[in-house]
Amino acid sequence: KAGLTKRSVLLQCCKVGEKQTFADITATLDDIVNAGATSLVLPRILTQLTDEGEWPLPEMYLLESPHGGLEELKALVAAVQARGLTAIAQVQVELPEDHCSVLRYPCNGHVPDDATARHTTEYCNWLSWLRTDIGFDGLQLCDTQEHDAHFLLQCLETAAPEMTVVEASGVTIVGGYEHAWAPADEPDRELMTNTVLHEVLSTRDWERLAAAKQMSHAVTYVDSDVPDALGLVADPLPLEYATLGYVYTLTHVGMPSVWWSHLCPTSTSPAAEELPHVIRTLLKIRQEYGISADSVVAVQHASDDAYVATVGTSVLVMIGTNAVTIGEWSPDELLGWEIGASGEDYTVWVKTRERALTLVKTALNLVQKGAPASKAREGR
């Protein structure tokens, strides 16, 4: 297993409330591998302190959920790893309001005591159990903005996951590979969260899309059940917008994630049936043309009509394009560009050295024979 790298793609198995079973996910693993995902984030494991401020022992070791039981989960993790993928556990702790506990010290003058030390040990042991007994490679800690940083660090040092993903204030940060943090000199620049992406796609505010700060160390979502900085969870993105959302996230910086229900839909609507094809095509482009978490994105154009950006040197993305914009910003096919993916309101161009050389040779041959160089286009 490669762990998390700058080329990783996460597949998020279930949103809160979705009913897929561990067996459903296991049955689609080959399709997931073929699509290009490298890591699976398995359904969220939720635990909460009792009214007495204690962990619900031994219940928290049973892991019974709507998705299946403990043995089914172990079988799924083993099947994921057998295919060379990494298995990541989502872990969330719900805290009673105004509760000064192991996760919130120091708060309201609360000082760590013997009970706090015991709670810390019990929780660290539980995370270690997820790693060693269930077999998870990594941990995704959900909704951590209220948690004490020293406590979280102690938990991660004890559990020693191969990779860590931490959610806080609507941004999901990857801690499993070396990365460059976003510039600290732009405190007023809006972060590109999935909530912002939803608003951009619904209002077609392409200038806002261009202005938002992209982070190489963040997981990027089309949909998320993670609360933002205001504690709000965005409504699910309509499928007609989800396509454009994936055109953006799968071609831009950060570590993109794909929802299992989008890649393996149960709905038979035309939009739901088309979306998996779009995702697979975009993932193939991301892989073949070397798009990574820290690829260089250069915005070429942003207006009421469209957003146009180059990603690296071999991918050009148009979102919201109309006929005028396509004519103005479409790259020259004689330089090796061709359409890699297209649909309503988007076009993704790709450039290959081999195609460029072929077109140049064709043009030279036509010129030598006395034909205009523009005839090379007709030989495609």
Automatic annotation (TrEMBL):
It catalyses: Endohydrolysis of (1->4)-alpha-D-glucosidic linkages in polysaccharides containing three or more (1->4)-alpha-linked D-glucose units. This is alpha-amylase. One of its GO terms (biological process) is carbohydrate metabolic process. Its EC number is 3.2.1.1. Residues 287-351 form the Alpha-amylase C-terminal beta-sheet domain. It comes from Pyramimonas obovata. Keywords: Glycosidase, Hydrolase. The keyword Nucleotide-binding does not apply. SUPFAM superfamilies: (Trans)glycosidases (SSF51445), Glycosyl hydrolase domain (SSF51011). GO terms for molecular function: alpha-amylase activity; calcium ion binding.
